[in-house]
Amino acid sequence: MPSVPPKVKGTRPPNEIDFWRGFALVTIFVNHIPGIYFETFTYRNFGFSDSAELFVLLAGWSLRAMVDRSRDLEPLRLVFRIGGRAVVLYVAQLVITVIAVAMIAATALLAQTNLVLQWNNAAAVFDEPVTANIGLVILTHHLGYFDILPLYIVLMTVAPAIAILHRFTPGALLALSCAVYAATLYTGFNLPTWPVEGRWFFNPFAWQLVFVIGYVLGGDGRPQRLIKKHRTGLRFLGISFVVGSFFAAVWGWYPDWLTAPEPAAFFVVDKTFQTPLRLLHVLALVAAFGGAFLYLARWAKPLVQYFSMLGRNSLNVFCVGSLLSLAGQIARFTFEGNLSVDVAVLLIGLVGLSVTAWVSEWRQRL
């Protein structure tokens, strides 16, 4: 069996979930800097899904691991334990949003241009501060590139119900989730935004299925036994779908909303509604690359340790990464982004993410 990198004192050793979660965090950081040279090489350009799906899937997987470790907890205590995580996420969203607004305002002030105030859906905060600030607090107004955590907050808010439903009637969870997903795609239902009219970029009623699938796969029951039994066939199907979506992305083949059969959401590639092609793609990636960690742990130990450290401290790294992405946008705007600027932004960002993770673990050891 391939060796695993040594454990850092006071932390859990590198593992597959932390590794891929760290990979997703780095990819999100890059993808949230529009126009950066390295964005071209992230895997969203070579398939139907991107790192957002991977992040949400692994969030559900990690929740299942935590719930399984808490099997002896009474349902009420389990609700409070999981619900506390939602509160932490909510506070984190408010903090990084306030900092992001200040960064945009400072950039507009220093650059002496009000055009910057319109970045990332922030215009309402400066044009309609009374209603916009209420919207930020009640999560009906999101800054662009700061809208994943609101989805995660909603998912973690309903996570106690997911855990309890699965504990008492495990067969009903996935069926109910699929029913909600299908109804959402059929009706087009989504949460509204306010005060700016619109809808959530990440529709929680559609994205919950990714979270629930991660939760189901993260356990050790009948689904896992079936997967192990048909592992070779599933890997072949996964690789085939990944290759097919690669050519579809490269050739620009995407079903169009106007020409797709009704209901169109079942056939197009849409991120807001987490349409089936995107969902199948992230599952195909899991089938194709699941288990690759064992080989990476042997042949790419520094990379495994880096990504795993980020994944172990995912919330702190995600929050700082979001702000670093905005800083990267500001740097590219200020210095008229070119390759040298992009290289500097990437390197500073990667160092910033690693420092965040290291400081987080240092505090935990203290």
Q: In words, what does this structure look like?
A:
It is a single chain. The protein has 366 residues and is mainly α. It has one domain. Helix content is 68%, strand content 1%. It has a two-stranded antiparallel sheet. Strand 1 and strand 2 form a beta hairpin. Helix 1 runs parallel beside helix 14, helix 6 (148-168) packs across helix 8 and helix 12 (292-299) crosses helix 13. The longest helix has 37 residues, at 75-111. It is globular and about 60 Å long. 39% of the residues are buried.
Question: What's this model, at a glance?
Answer:
Helix content is 68%, strand content 1%. It contains 15 helices and two strands.
Number of helices: 15
The shape, in one word, is globular
Biggest beta sheet attributes: 2 strands, antiparallel
Q: Can you tell me the residue ranges where pLDDT is under 50 for at least 5 consecutive residues? A: 1-8
Number of domains in the coordinates?
A: 1
Straight-line N-to-C gap: 34 Å
Kindly name the structural category. mainly alpha
- Radius of gyration from CA coordinates: 21 Å
Overall pLDDT metric: 93
Strand content: under 5%
Percent range of helical residues:
55-70%
Q: Strands of the biggest beta sheet: in what spatial order?
A: 1-2
How many strands in all?
Answer: 2
The ordered H/E elements are HHHHHHHEEHHHHHHHH
